[in-house]
Amino acid sequence: MALVLPEGCKAVIFDMDAAFYDDSGLATKAVIANLNHPGIFSSEKRVRKDMMGKDFTNSETFYETFFDEIAEDCGAEPEYLREWYNSSLIPKMVRLIRRYHKILPGVKNTVWALRKSGIKVVVLSDYEAASRRLKLLGFDTQWADHIFESPTLGGLLPCPQALQRLCIKIGLQPQECLFVGNKKGGIAASKCEMPFQEVD
């Protein structure tokens, strides 16, 4: 992974799900893993897609909206959905990562080089259990200065406000960071004037 650092760059923000591993096939595996709740799983995917890029200010509002919208879509109670999500869906995703996915070649060397240069390494994911999933990919979480999950920042990518809140938390301006991810993350980065590099 060859990075082109902008002048004055003090941190690199990696979209974990785009830059750290090949997620091709993960969606199909997730469908198979959730065949016991196909309607709820489909509703979760529809609601997640609809909420992408929208700002909900904080994690409490995000999750309240998230589960209320899934409930409206599939007819289940929000509290049941919250329990299903945290005790079934996310653990199944973790197991899929452990079984089928490894960190991409070059990621470790890139991260070590950044740390050696004094540049902060920040990892961002749109999904929960980010630290656990990183470890299963073979990424030592101590290599990252910060690990964030987008819902805790009030919005899923490409929500620019989520990136702005991330910058506040790490004490830097968006212009002092480089965002590394896919086109979805690039939209958020451009809206808050953050340099962006698309993954290969």
Structure description:
- This protein is of the alpha/beta class.
- The chain folds into 2 domains: 11-24 and 102-198, HAD superfamily/HAD-like (Rossmann fold, 3-Layer(aba) Sandwich), CATH 3.40.50.1000; 26-100, no CATH class.
- Helices cover 52% and strands 12% of the residues.
- The protein contains 9 helices and 5 strands, in the order E-H-H-H-H-H-H-E-H-E-H-E-H-E.
- The protein has helices spanning 16-19, 26-33, 38-51, 59-74, 78-100, 107-116, 130-137, 160-170, 183-191, and strands at 11-15, 120-125, 146-149, 177-181, 196-198.
- Strands 3-2-1-4-5 form a 5-stranded parallel sheet.
- Helix 4 crosses helix 5 (78-100).
- The longest helix is centred in the middle third of the chain and has 23 residues, at 78-100.
- The model has no long low-confidence stretch (mean pLDDT 94).
Radius of gyration (CA) equals 17 Å
Order of helices and strands: EHHHHHHEHEHEHE
- Structure class: alpha/beta
- The fraction of residues assigned to DSSP E strands is 5-15%
Short description:
The chain is of the alpha/beta class and 200 residues long.
Record keyword descriptors for this entry.
alpha/beta, Rossmann fold, 5-stranded parallel beta sheet
